[in-house]
Amino acid sequence: MRKFANLLFVVFGLVVIHPVVAQDVLPVRGLCIAAPQVDELDDFIAFIDQELAPRQVNVLVLRVDYNYQFESHPELQDEVALSKEQVKRLVDLCQKHNIRLIPQINLLGHQSWASDLGNLLKVYPQFDETPHVEMPENYQWPNEDGLYCKSYCPLHPGVHEVVFALMDEICEVFETDAFHAGMDEVFYIGDDQCPRCSGRDKAELFAGEVNKIQNHLAQNNRQLWIWGDRLLDGKTTGMGMWEASMNNTHRAIDLISKEVMICDWHYERPDKSAVYFAMKGLDVLTCPWRNPDHAVLQTRDMFDFRASATSEMKDRYQGMMQTVWSGAGAFMKEFYNSEDTTTNTAANCFRAMFAEIEQLTAKEEHNKK
Predict the structure, then answer these.
(1) Domain segments of the chain as ranges
(2) What topology is assigned to 28-107+160-353 in CATH?
(3) b/e for 76-87, b at 16 or more Cβ within 10 A?
(4) Strands 223-227 and 178-182, how do they pair?
(5) Fewer CB atoms near the end CB (10 Å): N or C, the chain?
(6) Which of 87, 103, 97, 92 is nearest to 33 (CA)?
(7) Is residue 333 classed exposed, middle or buried when 0-12, 13-18 and 19+ CB atoms within 10 A define those classes?
(8) What amino acid positions are annotated as catalytic residues?
């Protein structure tokens, strides 16, 4: 039988949990952040080496979108984008540190931001769910059109040929067994003026798109990850239109594949909706952002859920994933240059969450001796 003491090692006088133990206690210890820009790549590689690996981060979701030199659809890539060789540097480093590297491209929703269309709808405007809604010169929220972000039409006959080609290519270059499709904050779905979607059940439309993507990924033994907000009832729970759904997509939770990983984010309150997802038979992560106190509570909750769950439920509580909504460069600047460790920032939240994970992991393993 392995001795607890043999599964610890010391770095600069600090006790650090062995990676095997850490994963046994909490399967996912993740970070979700924008893929670095080309001129940020060297700094980001150093960040993985110096900050992620020592904290035993074992999942890194990179929001790539069009920051890659796609061969399948070069017309969609950003003007300056990561090359295959640059991505392979990230792949090799993450494999060295046993970090599961997962790319993200926003599918369905988030096809625009503020006054700017995303690359997909710029190049293929026919995929737009709401072509009658024009992008404003000066974006404001709220607005008469209810425009937050554009969506593509999930029933357009040409959209999946394009997005699946992007998915397949980015998964291949990342050498990954999972893909994150985003799918959060989808406000435009089943629009009354869409010739294909009008009158259809929004929950069925959302679930249909989730399952279509999951089924395509499963052909190559890959798993779909999505944000969980569209699967929560914003009215009944009081969570509202951002962290939950107010347009009736929430019923899709009973229609989607149980193979999908749910990334359950709550930034304003540390709500315990991970229990709801797990009870629906779905694997779930809890995802904080910039509130360190909330992140600590959410981490404790995740450990408690796993400790108190039935054997059938325990492994559905997969762990924690810090989310970062700035660019990689901005986050690293905040992480290294800010002397304020008390305010609500993503960097402080990151530190607090992983410190709590380390303490609770050590405590749990000590109790097993």
Answers:
(1) 28-107+160-353
(2) TIM Barrel (3.20.20)
(3) bbbeebbeeebb
(4) parallel
(5) N
(6) 103
(7) middle
(8) 185
Q: Which residues have a Cβ under 8 Å from the Cβ of 92 and sit 6 or more positions away? A: none
CB 322 within 8 A of CB 59: no
pLDDT tens track, the chain, 369 positions: 333 334 444 443 444 555 555 667 999 999 999 999 999 999 999 999 999 999 999 999 999 999 999 999 999 999 999 999 999 999 999 999 999 999 999 999 999 999 999 999 999 999 999 999 999 999 999 999 999 999 999 999 999 999 999 999 999 999 999 999 999 999 999 999 999 999 999 999 999 999 999 999 999 999 999 999 999 999 999 999 999 999 999 999 999 999 999 999 999 999 999 999 999 999 999 999 999 999 999 999 999 999 999 999 999 999 999 999 999 999 999 999 988 888 999 999 999 999 999 999 999 888 877
Nearest to 277 by CA among 292, 300, 290, 258: 258
